[in-house]
Design a protein that fits this description.
Length: 327
């Protein structure tokens, strides 16, 4: 074993455990309680990236009033539809789902979403007692067939809602047969949280996975291996902090307070020459988010109301959006 300790150049414990995601879209475990919007999230599909040139309007910025260029990620957000509701009740000091009320779906979607065959009527919402139900979550599904790459199987997810149980029941009754639009839930300049599954890179060694340095070229047991297995490595014990080969990428991740630069229903304003690589042309409403967003093209991106409240930066005045070919 080499005498030198070859620890990672950067923290190997930023995320732990680094396990493979169970599915290709995010599962949201917590919802904000500070929003007054009826639905707290939306499903979109990552199309690609481009860059924008505009006037910096931030009050304390060194480039205030100057023309700046920054990257943006384009996420296509076709309308969502309500599939039903999930009722939560408090039993044995735990909050548990008690029942699902599912409405009748369209014929072409019933084969693609695995749901119980028996559909419920909207009148069954009246059987929910507001004093007995602890919470109510919305069951929604996306419509990717309206997007640029025309995916067949839609994402089916559970979204949080704001207000009391009575307010949530009233909203579902009024909108169960309507489409949910992203421009009704979010607005330009707003901060949002982004949830997605990162690009998968498969099984990788400690050099690529954790940034471990190469060992000396005369090392007997491999140059790309870690230099030490840690302080307690006898009898088969290896500390979990020691960098080892394993799954890299395809992890569930969340990024807080990403700013929405623009929401538009005009795809011709953003479609580049030759379309977005590996995606195609956008056909419905899109959201332009400042900076990068993890995940591959066509991957489902879940945009939610922010958990950590922060005053958003002032929106730059956009002068130019690059529509040059991305190929």
């Amino acid at each position: 074993m080499s005498g030198r300790r070859h620890w990672p150049r950067h923290g190997s414990m930023q995320y732990w455990p680094r396990v493979k995601a169970k599915r290709a879209y995010a599962k949201i475990r917590s919802w904000t309680t500070n929003s007054k919007d009826p639905v707290l999230g939306f499903i979109g599909y990552k199309a690609g990236m481009t860059h924008v040139v505009g006037i910096d309007t931030r009050k304390n910025s060194q480039t205030k009033g100057d023309e700046i260029m920054f990257p943006v990620t384009v996420i296509e957000c076709p309308p969502m539809k309500i599939a039903g509701v999930r009722v939560y009740s408090k039993k044995y000091n735990k909050i548990q789902p008690s029942k699902d009320i599912l409405f009748r779906l369209e014929k072409n979607l019933a084969r693609k979403i695995v749901l119980p065959k028996k559909a419920h009527d909207i009148s069954e919402l009246d059987s929910i007692k507001a004093d007995e139900a602890f919470d109510l979550k919305l069951l929604v599904y996306a419509q990717p067939h309206l997007s640029g790459f025309a995916k067949k199987r839609p994402e089916y997810m559970e979204f949080g809602m704001s207000g009391t149980v009575s307010d949530k029941i009233k909203f579902v009754k009024e909108n169960h047969d309507k489409e949910l639009l992203v421009n009704n839930l979010f607005k330009d300049g707003e901060n949002v949280d982004v949830h997605a599954v990162t690009k998968g890179k498969g099984l990788q060694g400690p050099v690529k996975r954790f940034g471990v340095d190469f060992k000396a070229h005369k090392t007997e047991k491999g140059v790309r291996r870690v230099g030490t297995l840690g302080a307690w490595s006898g009898q088969g014990h290896v500390l979990y902090r020691v960098p080892h080969p394993g799954q890299m990428g395809y992890h569930l991740r969340t990024e807080f307070n990403k700013q929405i630069i623009k929401i538009s229903t005009k795809p011709e304003e953003i479609n580049p020459k030759g379309a977005f690589p590996h995606y195609g042309n956008i056909k419905s409403t899109y959201v332009m988010i400042k900076g990068s967003v993890f995940g591959a093209q066509k991957r489902a991106i879940v945009i939610t109301k922010p958990m950590r409240q922060r005053v958003p930066d002032s929106l730059p005045t956009i002068n130019y959006v690059s529509l040059e070919s991305k190929n």
